[in-house]
Amino acid sequence: METPGLVVHGESAPFSTALRSLVNNPLYSDVRFVVGQERQEVFAHRCLLACRCNFFQRLLGPEPGPAVPSPVVLSTVPADAFLAVLEFLYTNRVKLCRHSVSPSGRGLWGGRGWAEGPEKFPSTPATAPLQVLEVLTAAVEYGLEELRQLCLEFVVKVLDVELVCEALQVAVTFGLGPLQERCIAFIEAHSQEAFRTRGFLELSAPALLPLLRSDKLCVDEAELVLAARSWARVGAAVLERPVAEVAAPVVRELRLALLAPAELSALEEQNRREPLIPMEQIVEAWKCHALRRGDAARGAPCRRRRGTLPREHHRFLDLPFK
């Protein structure tokens, strides 16, 4: 009777080191990319890319030929993120960090961690640690499910005030529901700090809307109005559009009836100088005050949030925080 064979394994570290040495190495390379706005040239190997990633298999085709452009231009992905994807495809690991790191010194060193596949290699990676959201975005675009999941797990693990709004934007953009829920829950618990970050000011309207609809924000409405105005000003400057036009998709979620009469008067005066909120929305809030009924004006949200500071007129509102 024939003795069954035995599978033996060599050392994994030398194997991974050898493959890592091929990342962006022109030696034996048979495909060339021009990547990112900086148009960085990157060398790779067709067989490795095609066997590891369906996106590259379709992009590169079954064999070299006139159908495959040379170089292959990928202008939407940052070069550093593309190199991180290559390293994962070659070695099944990539080093990630919370915040951006680059040789020019941009960004901050946050917590660091390894995102790895089934094998763990102790040797030093070929690339610097990459901001996790850049790698996550590339993983989603290239259909790399394992890398996407590893990035998601890492984001949830290291989520902090500086990262959370950027993570929320990525989650909304790519329909990552569980990550969106985690980000919203984090912002609800750290509202004041999160709303002071650059990431908050750069949120899209679809990403900001679920925050403004939340009852659980730990922030007072007066501060929320100020945050919304700052957000709209930044968007107006970037898009070269009026502040009120930028704010239009989200300001309806501001609960103006929660403001005291003096605060509402001050807001109305500022709104005359710099339009932000439709006048009919302010009128609806005044109706709630005049009639002392939370349901006095249909569409005027009067429900208190978790962080709403008490005001004398709140006792007349019909919809307390739950």
TrEMBL record:
InterPro entries per UniProt: BACK (IPR011705), BTB/POZ_dom (IPR000210), BTBD19 (IPR042846), SKP1/BTB/POZ_sf (IPR011333)
Domain (BTB): residue spans on this chain: 29-98
Entries under Pfam families matching the protein: BACK, BTB
Domain of life (superkingdom): Eukaryota
SUPFAM superfamilies with a match to the protein in the record: POZ domain
Protein name: BTB/POZ domain-containing protein 19 isoform X2
Natural source organism: Ceratotherium simum simum
